[in-house]
C-alpha cells in the first residue's frame, strides 16, 4: 500500500513537468503550415475527406495529375494519427508471415506482403523526389521476443520471410541481445535491417508544403457530415456549406464517423498511447537501443519504442481499451517503460499523448470503392508507409488509371455485434492482457 502511495506522490511531482502535448510538432522550425484559406470553390474534380497521410498523399498525387482537389479536414491537418505516430516506417504487414501464409496461401501472401515492403521503398523515393525533409533513415526494426516460446516463433518467421518472401532478417541470440537492446525483459529478437524511422510531423508538414505549391485547397475545422449524389456530382455537407465533387476519397481511418456506416462497421478505433522522456545522457540512450532500431515486441498488447533525436526515448503501447485520461495512461506507460528499461528510473517523462489507430477484424489494411466512394484505411498500426502508398493508389483509381493491388479484392469483414461503438474492446483488452501474462 505504501508503495502505491509513494508511486502516486512521485507521479504527482513528476506530472508537473509533463506536457500533454505531442513531441513531434515541437521539432518543426520555420513558418507555420501553409494552409490555403477559405472560401472554397463550388465544385472540384475530387474531394478528399480527411487530412492525414492517406488524404494528403492522394491530394498531392491528384494535383500533380492536373485535378482540382479539396481536402476537407474535421480538425487540423495531421492531427489524426498522422502526426501522433511513432514514425516507424516498417516493411511487411501487421500479420506475422505464419498467419499471412496460413490464411492466404503462399502465392497470395507473397503479393500482399510485398506491398508492405514496396510501400517503404515508395515513401523513400517520393520524399526524395519531392524534397520532403522528414529525417527518414533505414535504421532497421527489431522484434523482441517476450517469451521463450516467442523465440521459436521468430525462428519460424525468419525462415518463412526468407523462403517465401525473399526477405533477409537476422536472428539475435539472447547472448548477443545487449548489442541491440539494453533490456533484461526479452529472450531474443529478429532484426529487419531495411525498415525505417522518420519524424511524422515533418512528413506531414513537407507534404502540406508540396500540396500548397500544387494548388490543392485544404480546409480545416470542416467536418463532412453527409454525402448525397445528384446528377454527376457528390454533394458533401459541412457545417460551413456544401461542396460538390465528381469523385470522393474517404481517408478517415481510426476517426471514421458513424454516418459512413459501411466503413465504420469495419474499422475499429483503438487508442494508442505514447510517452517521450526528457533528454537522456547520450551514453545511456545508446545503451538502450545501440543501433537506433525501431523496436516492438511480440506481446498481443505490444510495446513499441525508439530513440528520437538521438537522446530521448519514445515509448508507446495500448495501455487501455476503455475511456482513459491520457495522464493516467501516461503514468501506466511510464511504469511499463521502467519495467523494460530499469535504467530509466531516475529519468522523467516530458511529453505524453494518444491517438486512434484504425483496426480491422482481419488485421489487414483495406483499399477499394464502395457506393462510388474510394477509400483506404484500417492500417492496424502499420500505416506510416502504407498510407502514403495507398494515397497514391487512390489517386490513380480516382482518375481511372489501372491499379493492380492484391488488397483491392480482399473481402472486408465486419461482425454482427459491431454497429458504431466498439463496446467489446475492454473485454478483448483484458483477454489479451491475460494471455500475455500467462504466456510469460
Ligand atoms: C499513437 C500512434 C502511434 C502509431 N505509430 C505508428 C508507427 O510507428 N508506424 C506505423 O506504421 N503506424 C503507426 N501508427 C498508425 C499510423 O499513424 C496510421 O496508420 C496513419 O497515420 C493513418 O493515416 P490516415 O491519413 O489514414 O489517418 P489519420 O491520420 O488518422 O487521418 C484521418 C483524418 O480524418 C479526419 N476526419 C475524420 N472524419 C472526418 C470527417 N467527417 N470530415 C473531415 N475529416 C474527417 C480526422 O480528423 C483525421 O485527421 C500509429 C498510430 C497512433 C495513433
Q: Please, could you describe this protein's structure?
A:
- The protein has 440 residues and is of the alpha/beta class.
- It has a single domain (2-439), classed as FAD/NAD(P)-binding domain, CATH 3.50.50.60.
- The protein has 10 helices and 18 strands.
- The strands form 3 sheets. Strands 1, 2, 8, 9, 10, 11, 17 and 18 form an 8-stranded mixed β-sheet that branches.
- A hairpin with a 5-residue loop joins β13 (294-297) and β14 (303-308).
- It is globular, with a radius of gyration of 22 Å.
- The two termini are 25 Å apart.
- 47% of the residues are buried.
- Bound molecules: flavin-adenine dinucleotide.
pLDDT < 50 runs, ≥5 residues: none
Percentage of β-strand residues: 15-25%
CATH class: Alpha Beta
Gap from first CA to last CA: 25 Å
Radius of gyration: 22 Å
Q: CATH superfamily name?
A: FAD/NAD(P)-binding domain
Which CATH architecture would you pick?
Answer: 3-Layer(bba) Sandwich
Helix content: 25-40%
Note the total helix count.
10
Rounded mean pLDDT score: 93
Give the tally of β-strands: 18
Oligomer: single chain
Shape: globular
Tell me the series of helices and strands, N- to C-terminal.
HEHEEHEHEEEHEEEEHEHEEEHEEEHH
**Largest sheet properties:** 8 strands, mixed
Amino acid at each position: 500500500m505504501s508503495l502505491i502511495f509513494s508511486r502516486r506522490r512521485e507521479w504527482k511531482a513528476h506530472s508537473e513537468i509533463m506536457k500533454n502535448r505531442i513531441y513531434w510538432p515541437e521539432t518543426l522550425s520555420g513558418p507555420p503550415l501553409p494552409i490555403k484559406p477559405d472560401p472554397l470553390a463550388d465544385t472540384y474534380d475530387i474531394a478528399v475527406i480527411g487530412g492525414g497521410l492517406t488524404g494528403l498523399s492522394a491530394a498531392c498525387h491528384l494535383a500533380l495529375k492536373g485535378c482540382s482537389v479539396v481536402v476537407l479536414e474535421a480538425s487540423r491537418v495531421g492531427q489524426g494519427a498522422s502526426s501522433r505516430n511513432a514514425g516507424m516506417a516498417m516493411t511487411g504487414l501487421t500479420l506475422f508471415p505464419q498467419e499471412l501464409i496460413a490464411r492466404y496461401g503462399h502465392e497470395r501472401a507473397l503479393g500482399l506482403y510485398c506491398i508492405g515492403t514496396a510501400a517503404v521503398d515508395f515513401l523513400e523515393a517520393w520524399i526524395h523526389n519531392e524534397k520532403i525533409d522528414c529525417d527518414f533513415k533505414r535504421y532497421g526494426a527489431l522484434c523482441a521476443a517476450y517469451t521463450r516460446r516467442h523465440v521459436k516463433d521468430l525462428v519460424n518467421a525468419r525462415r518463412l520471410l526468407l523462403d517465401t518472401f525473399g526477405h533477409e532478417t537476422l536472428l539475435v541470440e539472447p547472448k548477443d541481445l545487449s548489442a541491440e537492446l539494453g533490456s533484461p525483459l526479452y529472450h531474443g529478437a529478429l532484426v529487419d535491417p531495411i525498415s525505417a524511422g522518420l519524424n511524422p510531423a515533418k512528413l506531414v508538414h513537407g507534404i502540406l508544403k508540396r500540396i500548397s505549391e500544387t494548388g490543392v485547397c485544404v480546409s480545416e475545422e470542416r467536418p463532412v457530415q453527409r454525402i448525397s449524389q445528384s446528377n454527376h456530382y457528390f454533394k458533401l455537407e459541412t457545417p460551413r456549406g456544401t461542396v460538390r465533387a465528381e469523385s470522393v476519397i474517404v481517408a478517415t481511418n481510426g476517426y471514421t464517423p458513424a454516418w459512413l456506416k459501411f466503413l465504420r462497421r469495419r474499422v475499429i478505433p483503438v487508442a494508442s498511447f505514447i510517452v517521450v522522456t526528457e533528454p537522456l545522457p547520450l551514453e545511456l540512450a545508446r545503451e538502450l537501443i545501440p543501433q537506433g532500431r525501431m523496436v516492438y515486441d511480440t506481446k498481443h498488447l505490444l510495446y513499441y519504442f525508439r530513440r528520437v533525436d538521438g537522446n530521448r526515448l519514445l515509448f508507446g503501447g495500448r495501455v487501455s481499451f476503455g475511456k482513459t485520461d491520457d495522464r493516467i495512461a501516461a503514468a501506466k506507460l511510464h511504469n511499463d517503460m521502467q519495467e523494460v528499461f530499469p535504467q530509466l528510473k531516475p529519468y522523467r517523462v516530458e511529453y505524453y499523448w494518444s491517438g486512434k489507430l484504425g483496426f480491422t477484424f482481419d488485421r489487414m489494411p483495406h483499399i477499394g470503392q464502395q457506393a462510388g466512394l474510394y477509400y483506404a484505411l484500417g492500417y492496424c498500426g502499420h500505416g506510416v508507409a502504407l498510407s502514403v502508398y495507398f494515397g497514391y493508389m487512390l489517386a490513380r483509381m480516382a482518375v481511372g488509371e489501372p491499379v493492380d493491388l492484391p488488397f483491392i479484392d480482399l473481402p472486408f469483414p465486419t461482425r454482427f455485434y459491431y454497429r458504431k461503438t466498439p463496446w467489446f474492446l475492454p473485454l478483448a483488452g483484458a483477454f489479451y492482457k491475460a494471455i500475455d501474462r500467462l504466456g510469460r
